[in-house]
Amino acid sequence: MKAGVEPLLNDGFAGEATKRSLGYLQKQREKGKNIVGIYCGYAPLELIRAANAAPAVLCAFANKTIEAAETVLPANLCPLIKSSYGFIKTDTCPFFAISEAVIAETTCDGKKKMFELISGIKPMHVMDLPQLPDQKEALENWTAMIKKLKGFLETTFNRKIEDADVEKEIQATNEKNRLMNKIFDFAALTPTPVTWLEFYDLTYLGQAATTQDMLPILKETIAKLEKRVAEGIYHGEKDSPRVLVTGCPVGGDATKVFKIIEEAGGVIVVLDSCTGMKPYSGMIAENTPDPYRALSRRYLDLPCSCMTPNSRRLDELDKMIERFKPDVVVDVVLHACHSYNIESHKIKEHITGMHKMPFLKIETDYSQSDVGQIRTRVEALFEMLPQK
Amino acid sequence: MKAGVEPLLNDGFAGEATKRSLGYLQKQREKGKNIVGIYCGYAPLELIRAANAAPAVLCAFANKTIEAAETVLPANLCPLIKSSYGFIKTDTCPFFAISEAVIAETTCDGKKKMFELISGIKPMHVMDLPQLPDQKEALENWTAMIKKLKGFLETTFNRKIEDADVEKEIQATNEKNRLMNKIFDFAALTPTPVTWLEFYDLTYLGQAATTQDMLPILKETIAKLEKRVAEGIYHGEKDSPRVLVTGCPVGGDATKVFKIIEEAGGVIVVLDSCTGMKPYSGMIAENTPDPYRALSRRYLDLPCSCMTPNSRRLDELDKMIERFKPDVVVDVVLHACHSYNIESHKIKEHITGMHKMPFLKIETDYSQSDVGQIRTRVEALFEMLPQK
């Protein structure tokens, strides 16, 4: 954002999403809440909260722990998985340190097998994730897995989870998501009054924090954004290329890609990933006979490339393109993430074919070694865009 | 095998397992059987056979189709998946050509996403494979998937599959496996009277061929092996290092590893993979109230690295080490196969720790570029073995 403009989250942690989350979770712990570590967007947050626990997104985004990880894991593996494991191996993830249990899922080969190597340190529960979300069995099976997780949380924390509390959390998530989407609507404006870093600050905190704690922050954010719009404050230039970023979760050292896009003159108007809009994009059915089944449907609808076919991702991209009016789509694929890497072919065909829009796939890791090459490619992409 | 010794399968196809299988399947087709293409050991063969169809293992083992595959798939992907896709893209897999339907499974990220790219050419059915084989839900869910496959086969071939026929096929598989294991027992002898190529010829044909067709071949093979033993004919030298090969499926161009092991003076006494003993190692429960559930249990017990935790693999290795008395264990990991690659760490710890046995992990692809390097490592491994 331009100099002199007050950050949306003006709490001393602007641009430091993980530090803010850690502070928040430490306070929750002091208040007597249990902390549950999570590695993935398929972990049903509402169930964790209904267990009077707070979800902690575990460390996964730093290059510095990869060297330690590679003493055990193959080098040719997704940096997110290597980094996650390296944090555990070097005992340097403060979120893991305060977690009393860990939830894992069979989302991808690398994570699934890495989890085996860190099981036994803390109570860990692995959820068997169905991969064909359109099959009726998937809904049944994932519902059963969510109920199994309920049992694990109840046993681990010696506390019964009430269906009514799950329902309450479902409604709370929906309330949070509605407000989050109001903020996303500001990002959709031309020019956009919000930066990717402010966006990221919010989506990151929103994972850890309850709706109750988020409400004042979100309302203040909306008020600030209204003020920015009224005062004509916007990010970038009026004719900056608008970028939709899709693909793998991106945080920490991988945000180099976002920085390069901005430095090259682009404005990121939407982050479609688990570290962006994805956790907030859908609503969970309320007041159903079985709240676990409602959770199951919502989480199965997450358009992750681990699903086959992942047609929901194309549908979501269509909606995002209409809503955020990007000029280009950038697909960020973490090195050796087979599912996003292979799916990128379909995404490219969809974006360049149906939407007639420029598409750039960036395969990267957490090192700085490819910064120059990525910059050249992003600059070339922006140069070939038609004048606005 | 030494010069002058009659091959076990003396049908003009010795050492050419795929050609023999193709000939067999073409004859089956002429007899009116349907052909069903499979890519993986989780495809329940008994159900395919009960549908009056024959399973065809689809092409996946040639380097020559990888270049074509890489125009769509990432280069950094398992060669088996790239080769499989390349065969379809270049329309050069004769097994696919004669298949009227294809069965796929969500075994790994790469295959799962590759299948999306070849769906629609032939009727394809994707089975959602549970990944936590010890959970009671896994048995239920995989049983449901097997019954769903039954529905697919019935619809595709417009033919009802009778439970009694499934039961008959279960018993037939058990009969085949018992005889196969008699042959494996010969491989367990010191010195061993059978080569890996003869072994491979048999295990490959046994996938396509019915028990009825295999019986005379297996009985003749056993008679030949008894004769070899009686006449003191054996493979390699009496003190050749005995090698247990574990890991990824290996065929075609990847058998370079087997050739190098033999050229370096080793004798492969057991191939523990889907192209080796794995499909024949277990028995299916007979005369149960639900034959689909019996199949489910058996197939879920396959110790593939896609399972978590895959403790069955360690159990099977223990049994194989006792039975085949290897001097070394070689773990063959295909490039970018994350699950076998990560699991290799556990296997190494188990082999070198519990069994105090030398262990070599070979990560390779289908090219010839690493032949020299693999040879050096295998030779070094054999040199460090204690004198017998």
Shape, per Cα inertia axes of chain A = globular
Number of strand segments of chain A: 8
Question: Averaging pLDDT over every residue of chain A, what do you get?
Answer: 96
Write the CATH architecture name of the domain at 17-160 in chain A.
3-Layer(aba) Sandwich
From the structure provided, what is the oligomeric state, counting identical versus distinct chains? Answer: homodimer
What is the CA-based Rg of chain A, rounded?
Answer: 20 Å
Model regions low in confidence, pLDDT < 50 over at least 5 residues of chain A: none
Taken in chain order, the helices and strands of chain A follow as HEHEHHHEHEHHHHEHEHHEHEH
Structural features, described:
2 copies of one chain form a homodimer. Chain A has 388 residues and is an alpha/beta fold. Chain A has a domain at 17-160: Rossmann fold (3-Layer(aba) Sandwich), CATH 3.40.50. Helices cover 49% and strands 11% of the residues of chain A. Chain A has helices at 17-30, 45-50, 66-69, 79-89, 94-98, 109-118, 136-157, 163-187, 196-208, 211-230, 256-263, 291-300, 311-324, 338-354, 371-383; strands spanning 34-38, 53-57, 101-105, 124-127, 242-247, 267-272, 328-334, 359-364. A 4-stranded parallel beta sheet of chain A has the order 2-1-3-4, with helices on both faces. In chain A, helix 1 (17-30) packs parallel to helix 9 (196-208) and helix 8 packs antiparallel against helix 9. The model of chain A has no long low-confidence stretch (mean pLDDT 96). The interface between A and B is large, with 42 and 42 residues.
